[in-house]
Amino acid sequence: MEAREARRRLKEAKRVAVLTGAGISAPSGIPTFRDAGGLWKDFRIEDYATPEAYRRDPLKVWEWYAWRYANAMQAQPNRAHRLLAELERQFTTPSPHVGDRLTPTAREGSGFLLVTQNVDGLHARAGSTHLVELHGSIGRARCEECGARFPLPDPGLFIPPPVCPKCGGRGRPDVVWFGELLPPGAFERAENAFAKAEVALVVGTSAEIEPAASLGRLASWAGAYLIEINPNQTPLSRLADCSLRMGAIEGLEALLSPTSLLDLE
Ligand code: APR
């Protein structure tokens, strides 16, 4: 059965790369973009998520991001975020001392990287540290004058636009808008991990937005075992070695939980 094989591969792999999208945060109450009820159903990208929109009406764009920021800060990481943080620790936490030596875990120091398209900060709050936020973070601003990045104040105290603590310039949302480049080095780091991965795990993304969507294809073409978790079919599904047509929590429980039912069958 595919899922059992996928679970075995994840257990044994020395290099794992994970890509997540808005679907992993849906159970935390954060809206996706293209699903029924998604953000782009109620808001036009051209009005809120392009440099032109911001130039045209910075305060309107800031009010929208301040609203999303407050939602993200009220939300809690869910079991799926936590399971991925636990998976990372299998690669990065030394096993207990044996005698007076640290016996490195079988996978310690191997390759694990979590790449997310999400800007909600929930992976970091769940404890993930080997993390690339490809599209930036809704909890940060970037100064339009000096380029400094700085955290936004508590949502209850935040009155946009934020003022740069370094130079007093106006801050813009530190997210990647349509038509903008990704943060320097972010995609190269992600590409490197997916090109070398033995297992690539893609969770909760419609796989429609490039260049993030290319990561799953890259891993598959490089010979990785590709796993997709999504209740719906995506352009990536035909390449997946294992496609779990279910939600992120259910799928990651099956693949990663120590009490997975897959071990019982
Ligand atoms: N578990 C897993 N997947 C889910 C769940 C869930 N509980 N609920 C929904 N999904 C899936 C949907 O089937 C859909 O394929 O999550 C996906 C969400 O797709 P999008 O809304 O397109 O979000 P995403 O793929 O992250 O969008 C990529 O587009 O608008 C830009 O910058 C924005 O980062 C975003 C990028």
Short overview:
This protein is of the alpha/beta class.
Primary descriptors:
265 residues, alpha/beta, Rossmann fold, SIR2/SIRT2 'Small Domain', 2 domains, 3-stranded antiparallel beta sheet, 11 strands, 18% strand, globular, binds adenosine-5-diphosphoribose
Overview of this structure, please?
This protein is of the alpha/beta class. It has two domains: 1-28 and 77-135 and 182-265, Rossmann fold; 31-74 and 137-175, 2-Layer Sandwich (SIR2/SIRT2 'Small Domain'), CATH 3.30.1600. The protein has ten helices and eleven strands. The chain has helices at residues 2-12, 39-42, 45-48, 51-56, 58-74, 79-92, 122-126, 186-196, 214-221, 248-256; strands at residues 15-20, 97-98, 101-102, 111-116, 131-133, 136-143, 149-151, 171-175, 199-203, 225-229, 242-244. The strands form three sheets. It has a six-stranded parallel beta sheet, sandwiched between helices. The protein has a three-stranded antiparallel beta sheet with strand order 7-6-8, covered by helices on one side. A hairpin with a 2-residue loop joins strand 2 and strand 3 (101-102). Helix 8 (186-196) packs parallel to helix 9. The radius of gyration is 19 Å and the shape is globular. The termini are close together. It binds adenosine-5-diphosphoribose. The site of adenosine-5-diphosphoribose (APR) has 25 residues, from loops.
Mean pLDDT over all positions? 93
User: Percent range for helical residues?
Assistant: 25-40%
Oligomeric composition of the shown chains: single chain
- Under CATH at level 1, the class of the largest domain stands as Alpha Beta
Biggest sheet layout? 6 strands, parallel
Strand content: 15-25%
CATH third-tier fold name of the largest domain: Rossmann fold
**Low-confidence segments:** none
Overall geometric form: globular
Helix/strand-derived class?
alpha/beta
Give the termini distance in whole angstroms: 10 Å
Give the neighbour order of strands across the main sheet. Answer: 5-4-1-9-10-11
Q: What count of domains describes the coordinates?
A: 2
Q: Give the total of beta strands.
A: 11
List ligands, each type once. Answer: adenosine-5-diphosphoribose
Domain Deacetylase sirtuin-type: 1-265
Pfam families: SIR2 (PF02146)
Subcellular location: Cytoplasm
Family: Belongs to the sirtuin family. Class III subfamily.
